[in-house]
Amino acid sequence: MCGIVGYAGGEDAVPILLDGLYKLEYRGYDSAGVAVCRDGHLRLAKTKGYVRELDRIVDGGRLLPGAVGLGHTRWATHGRPTDSNAHPHISHGGKIAVVHNGIIENYAKLREYLVGKGFEFGSETDTEVAVNLIQHYYNKHGEILRAVASAARRMEGSYALGILCEDCPDMLIATRRESPLVLGVGDGGNFLASDVAALIKYTRDVYTLEDGEIAVLSESGVTVYNGDLEMITKTPERVDWDISAAEKGGFEHFMIKEIMEQPDAVAKTVSPRVADGRVTLDELGIPDEYVMGVTKIYIVGCGTASYVGVAAKYNFEKYAKIPAESVVASEFRYSSPMIDEHTLVICISQSGATADTIAAMREAKRLGAKVLSIVNVVGSVIARESDWALYTWAGPEICVASTKAYSTQLVLTYLLTLYFAEKRGAISAGEYESVMREISLLPEKMASVVKDRETYQYLASIYFNNEDIFFIGRNIDYALSLEGALKLNEISYIHSEAYAAGELKHGPIALVTEGTLVVAVATYGKLIGKTVSNAVETRSRGARVLSVTTQSGADIVGGVSDRMITVPDTHDMLLPSLGVLPLQLFAYYMALMRGCPIDKPRNLAKSVTVE
Ligand code: F6R
Fold it and tell me: How far is residue 385's CA from residue 383's CA, in Å, rounded to a whole number?
């Protein structure tokens, strides 16, 4: 979603801001802008569309000199993506400029209040309310930090704000609530950003701004205050991300690069948690009595993360013998889950910043559950607020469509399943060992699948004109079908839907006509025959069937499919890790054939920080 970058230093700000905005493009946006303060005057440029258009308008920064500035990419919430709704926004009277991520929920009331005080508005955004509220308090107190603190107290909802004031031309101010902001400490200049990707080229020393804190950045330093404007001391963290992770490294898209990175990412995520053939999750420090006493598991997440939850549900029930339910976070937060202190809620989130998942986590805690999170972004809200956090070591995922986060989340659910199953005596020693053996082989088997890209190029060349595609599967293959259909929806814009294979004849089969493409996901040994029968039912009605199965399933599946993809055999628990790879590659090459903007699909954002 929206991205923020800010700079206060000894160099011209706009080239640095543009560079940061390019790095934030992956978050998804529809307009962009920059503002600088120079010689006591604010100047800005903003436009609907891409950062490269903004770059052209300001001639790479040459038309907008100044050493203190803010940049923003906006993903429209309040108001359409237009030049006037783009950030930065300037206060009535022109003294203050603001960029904003998040949603100010009481903006209508505040706007009415400000209109009553004589403020005029030129956009439909809630951000203009924020900047005018700060201006209102600035008029009253005559002191910018007091004005920011007073305005922050009146705003409800979520916000991360970057603020410039003409009267303090050397200062950049930032504050936040529930929307992330990091501060980078550089040599000869300091930085502000909504995520580290924007500033990692300049510094690896960052502070995370906490809810309610206010930061002042200048060329010489960074000072942080609490909401009462008392100075506080923070310790910088060192970011160890590999800078090349934010570059395409010779690949045409981040998506294909990230697909290819999955074997390594899975190996990195698993290896620190396995010793002597056993899962060790000592890093969590979960008491054994708690593990023994869990009576119910909810797995909560959004989109792809929630589909990891669907696969995990089957595995927890089958191997750890614990009742488990996967619920999308946006539903969980408003349902009435039956929770007590023996309920474990597992929150899965790449970003750790998804608004619905955060709300679900807080609701679960309020109701007395313990929360264990599976998160990729270190120090994110979900990681910090959950009782136990397990990190996926996927590195930054830049493509909006999730791939390596999915794979690394999935393997952590296997480790958790095994950990609970072993401690509770629910799994035999033989079965435990056979899963562990296969886990150690997983990266190699994954690598063997992703190296065969030509197959998917070829399949896409046959199928890319299809406008409706159905995915069917049972059990863990149903979980995979959900993910396969979602990938295709988001990056190729093909209408695709997933059904539990047995459900087809209860309705959706009415949609099958001559030439409809049905992707039959049939990797789960015990149910391959059943899914195949459902695929045959669609074939008898004119469908073309593309199957995904295992090497040992090929005999049953081959004869009834128009085309078949096979993945290596592995332990049943781990099948989703291999089965998902053909679905990702298929979606990627379908989108490529259709000329879609794969890394930044329309209307989508990487971190969904609004409800
Ligand atoms: C799909 C995708 C989204 C995310 C979802 C949750 O490819 O990326 O469905 O999985 O928005 O995001 P996180 O994992 O950051 O909570």
Answer: 6
Cis preceding linkage at 508, omega within 30: no
Catalytic annotation present for 365: no
Q: How far is CA 92 from CA 89, 133, 378, in A?
A: 10, 10, 39
Q: Does the structure show a pLDDT above 80 at 611?
A: no
- Assess whether 37 carries a catalytic annotation: no
Q: Is 268 left (phi over 0), alpha (psi -120 to 50) or beta?
A: alpha
Q: What is the DSSP string of 18-41?
A: HHHHHHHGGG--SEEEEEEEETTE
Report which ligand 1 atom has the smallest distance to the Cα of 377: 15
Cα 497 to averaged position of ligand 1 atoms, centre (Å): 17
What is the tens place of the pLDDT at every residue in 203-236?
989 998 999 999 999 999 999 999 999 999 998 8
Query: Mutation test of ligand 1: which of 195, 490, 608, 611 has the most ligand atoms closer than 8 Å to its C-beta?
Result: 608
Catalytic residue among 2, 168, 347, 399: 2
- Alpha carbons 445 and 585: distance in angstroms, whole number: 15
Q: Atom 10 in ligand 1: which residue has the minimum CA distance?
A: 304
Cα 349 to ligand 1 centroid, rounded to whole Å:
7
Indicate if the pLDDT at residue 445 is higher than 90. Answer: yes
What is the Å distance from ligand 1's center to 305 Cα?
A: 6
pLDDT at position 81: 82
Query: How far does residue 350's CA lie from ligand 1's centre (Å)?
Result: 7
pLDDT number for residue 380: 86
User: Closest ligand 1 atom, CA of 403?
Assistant: 7
Spatial neighbors of 78 by CB under 8 A, at least 6 apart, are 85, 103, 107, 124, 125, 126, 127
Three-state secondary-structure class, residue 79: coil
Please compute the mean of the pLDDT values over residues 437-453 and round it to a whole number.
Answer: 97
Q: One-letter amino acid identity for 372?
A: L
HEC profile for 323-361? CEEEEEHHHHCCCCCCCCCCEEEEEEECCCCCHHHHHHH
Q: What is the model's pLDDT at position 243? A: 62
Within 10 Å of residue 117's Cβ, how many Cβ atoms?
Answer: 12
What tokens appear for 492 in the block? Answer: 């190729």
* Residue 158 pLDDT level (bands cut at 50, 70, 90): confident
278-328 pLDDT, tens digit each: 999 999 999 999 999 999 999 999 999 999 999 999 999 999 999 999 999
191 touches 239 (CB < 8 A): no
Burial class from Cβ neighbours inside 10 Å (0-12, 13-18, 19+) for residue 81 reads middle
Share of the chain above pLDDT 70, in %: 99
Q: Probe ligand 1: pick from 75, 347, 354, max atoms within 8 Å of CB? A: 354
pLDDT higher at 103 or 300: 300
Give residues (CB < 6 A) around ligand 1.
302-305, 349-351, 354, 357, 401-402, 486, 490, 607-608
Least confident segment among 80-84, 181-185, 391-395: 80-84
In angstroms, the Cα distances linking 498 to 410, 490, 577 are 19, 14, 18
pLDDT at 244 > cutoff 70? no
Amino acid letter for position 442: L
Residue-range domains of the chain with CATH:
3-240 (3.60.20.10), 243-255+262-448 (3.40.50.10490), 452-597 (3.40.50.10490)
Distance of CA 260 from the midpoint of ligand 1 (Å): 19
Measured in whole angstroms, how far is the alpha carbon of residue 420 from the centre of its chain?
A: 27
